[in-house]
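Researcher: Structure prediction, please.
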Amino acid sequence: MNNHCQSCGMPLNDQSLVGTEKEGQLSKDYCTYCYEAGEFKQPDLTMEEMIDVCVPYLKEDGMAEEQARHMLTSVLPSLKRWKKGETIEYVIVEKEAFQVLGLTARTCNADEMTPEGKIPSLWSAFYEQKVPEQMANLVKPTATYGLYSDYASDVNGEYSLTIGMEVLSSGAVPEGLSVKIIPAAKYMVFTSEKGPMVEVVIKAWQHIWAWFANSEVERTYTGDFEVYDERCTNPEEAQVDIYIAVRG
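Model: Predicted structure follows.
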């Protein structure tokens, strides 16, 4: 089952929120507000109209209207109901064990869809505290990682997000920073489109979640990461690689 409704993007973290198919079984893709008995409740609704429907609910949760519209405009085009049959390409690589030093926060995808999300403030702290200047033994000084590790379960559970850089050895860890050691693994590497950084990363993750929801390939959840390198120098024309650990 997808962890978000593939029509409106609402988190499906409670079975009572899940829609039903024609014979009564739970839908794998849609919430009860969008889908019932195998049909969309508003079959003629356009994506733009769906955004108008969703914005008031996000505002009730404390999100500003402009932020809500921006998020929905970024997310909805990649959902199953709205995407236009595009495919996402990937390559397979193997990477030895490595370690990342940086700032860490504990969160989950459901929280990141609300004003309580921690990811934006963690990125702000990374730059405000000049974290890269506190590091030595960097493997690649031009590459910043968004590392997802210590998964409680799967895409629906909590995880640790570390924003940092790969180091040869952590040495003495500066106060406030943490080290994450990721085991050797096989990865599927997905590359985002080029565009505004936040938008292309969100869209890439939506594609990845949808891809794995319909694939027999199993994720291992030993550690996944985004790589922000020279291609992100211009944040309005950024391109990011996302590494997903999978079973060999």
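Model: The chain has two domains: 15-78, 90-246.
Researcher: Thanks, that helps.
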